[in-house]
Amino acid sequence: MAQVYNIFWVKCVLIVLFGVLMQESTSYVLIEGDKMDESSVRGVQTPQIKDVRSKRATMNKHRLWKFGVIPYEIDDDLGFDRITNIKAAMKHWEVVTCIIFVERDPIEHEDYIRFTQILECTCCSDVGKMGDRQVVGVTNCGGVGGIIHELGHVIGFHHEYQRPDRDEYIVIIKEKPTYEDFFFNTPTNKLSPREFDTLGEPFDFDSIMHEYIETFTTRPKKGKNGIVPKMHRNELLSAIDIRKTKKLYKCPECGRTYLDKKGEFTSPQYYNNLIDRKYSCEWRIKAIKEERILLNITDLDTFLFDSSDCGNDYLEVYDGYWHKSPLLARFCGDKIPENIVSSANNMFIRYVSSHTEHEHRGFVANYETFSI
Question: For the whole model, what pTM was predicted?
Answer without folding.
Answer: 0.80
